[in-house]
Fold this protein.
Amino acid sequence: MEKLTTKIKELSSQFFQEFWNFRCQIHSNPELSFVEFETSKLIQQKLMQLGIEFENNWVKTGIVATIKANSDNGKIIALRADMDALPIKEENQNNYSSNNAGVMHACGHDFHTASLLGTAKILTELKDKWAGTIKLIFQPGEEVLPGGASLMIKQGLFEKHPIQKIFAQHVTPEIEYGKVGFKSGMFMASTDEIHITATGIGGHAAQPHLYKNPITALCNAIMQIDNFYKTANHPINTVIAIGNFSASGATNVIPNNATALGTIRTFDENYRKEIHKKIISICQKISKETEVEIKCSIIIGYPFLKNNKKLTEQAKLNAIEILGVENIIDLPVRMTAEDFAFYSQKIPSCFYRIGTGNKKKGITNGVHTSKFDVDKNSLQPAMSLMTYLAICEMQDDAIKN
């Protein structure tokens, strides 16, 4: 009997162009978080073409589709793809470049969606090779708090669909196409937003006795927050950074207000709360010292993403079987964040990185940049791998041959 890995690769090759074209179609028509209405329609049309049942209106644009094998063993797993784009003006000049001014699929969610649909088609072709039920989650709003994952869970995803395990992938231009990276356990950091507003008394710069400068007060607070970040003995990987500062004064005008925005990343929930308290206390201290009102609020974001050790280590072994040991990479922890973390806090999860870069072609620009792109040849192994991971999880080893 033909090996399952061989059959999956053949089908991936056969269906590859169809789903690359789909990826290009939605790349040309990107939509921002939680308004992915046309993208959702295209996905639904494709699911209907494939004969796959689905539910829409999950957080307005989200979709949950269902593929049932020819036999049922009680297993239910999920495969997830996000589908929102970013407020970035694309600089690439491709025949599939963005047609929506200032909006771009700069994080590969178009690729994730196309890959999951391709995987779905292969799974429907191989219903005799696995048993049980596979859910396909097309999720909105990964890029914007509170995250589409949290809202789908809140809407009752796991109550309506008793999913036992979940997989997802993410494009990674730092990894060459054809390769894939895994990390079991703690993988990606939690993320929170820092919002600080300083309110003083504005005035003419030449009359310091009449004003209370919110800029210098806020700068003082920022420097003390930065000093805490750089000198504290953090018990776990942590990042605290201010990325935005705004004040509307002039060379001789002291404004009434100044604002700063930043981020907090870490891997421990208790320490996460301690950081919040420390930053707020620094702002309160500087406010008292300068007599400038400083308000600090921490916007709670995504939790840390943890990959189930057993599930991820088995997925890595399965990846070796279909892609070859030379194409499997062990990854370090990442300080970037992902709302897939909400799923990982609920059920056993595996979130892996699929290589999409190609140095020879100059496809090396990072995600969230205006020149980000993926190598076309990365889609086929992405489809093959997700299909094989799903089938292996649904069946005993004996089915592989």
Summary: The longest helix spans residues 4-28.
